[in-house]
Amino acid sequence: MIKLNQTHDVSLQSWVESANSLTTDFPIQNLPYAIFKLRDSNQAFRAGVAIGDFIVDMPAAHKAGLFDHKLNAALELLSHDVLNDFMQLGQEIWSAIRLALSGALKQGSKHQSALEACLVLQSDAQYKVPAQIGDYTDFYTSINHATNVGKLFRPDNPLLPNYQWIPIGYHGRSSSIVVSGESFHRPYGQLKAPDQDCPTLAPCKRLDYELEVGIYIGQGNALGQPIPIEESEQHVFGLCLFNDWSARDIQGWEYQPLGPFLSKSFASTVSPWIVTMEALAPYRQAWARPSNHPQPLPYLDSAQHTDSGALDMKLEVLLKTPAMDTAERVGLSNFNQAYWTIAQMVTHHSVNGCNLKAGDFFGSGTQSGTTKDSMGALLEVTEGGKHPITLSNGETRTFLENGDTVILRGWCHIDGMARIGFGECSGTILPPVNRG
Ligand code: CA
Fold this sequence. Notes:
Shape: globular
CATH topology of the largest domain: Fumarylacetoacetate hydrolase, domain 2
Bound molecules: calcium ion
CATH architecture of the largest domain: Alpha-Beta Complex
Radius of gyration: 22 Å
Distance between the termini: 56 Å
Number of helices: 10
Largest sheet: 8 strands, mixed
């Protein structure tokens, strides 16, 4: 587990004024990575680090000679248009670059004028999915979500018996993962209402969002060599926000016997910024299972994991319909309610010898609390579409309509520590493609 160090010091201030605002997602204590270029330019995509309203153009900062030459080989990798090779380097290097950047960005740094020339406004930037995601696995770590969804399908037996023993997941589709800001068309699929004899091919009528945390793997493991839980977080580069858009009607007809298929693979949205595990160190929390629940098998727990395996990260979902001027909140939950942790996901995924690779991606599964205002999917808020929600302008929704925009936000904040934000993960639904 990463220890607190001088880069977490709450009193650190940056010469980039906007980074010192108490409401910014990107203070000097955060320093998350994205892949960006100037919007509408023919520039190459490359790595940047967020500071206040700006991005540090990392290849430009490297060229300006701001870093120790020992970091040269690592910094070269930040001119690539994906972070995979940098993710493969491991915690020691990521940490050395964080320390160097923190020093160069803090008030009074001798590097200020050289680094000022390397700043790009975030509002001028265009982003892409920051890694070549080889494999994507979606988990199901919120017991509240699993129970809420289970109740809709199996009122007498909402939680299947394996849930409390296995971090349940399925292998997803990585090619349709897009970056925040991209729109997509309402998908077609096979739909079959219970009272219909045969399915029809039609646009999805029950389109939903899922409020999830995304997890990028850093260093991988060799095939056949499981990752012990004590080492699991050394294999995680960082976290983002993730909207696993879901077509509930397609899902309902296809999901048995092998799980979700086309109901999930038409689009999934990631936020552009990856917040490193080091930036999140102040927000780690003790992890415990209620004493009346089965305790995890030994390979899924350790003293260190019990001490600090959870993460206090607020997660918010907002909806903006075409009639609204500003988005409004439709759910607020916390990742510390998850039944399974990041470390348990990594260790369980590799326990059979499965090899994880740099840039592989996990979804945490929809993160829901226990109350109506803390649900991470409309399926739960509306109890399967039975009880529409009423928005502040009087509009109602059971599921998403064309033109609706869904925005996810996430942040960590406790008194006495810097606020670590995740930026935004947004997507808009276009009408289905006209098939004549
Ligand atoms: Ca999901």
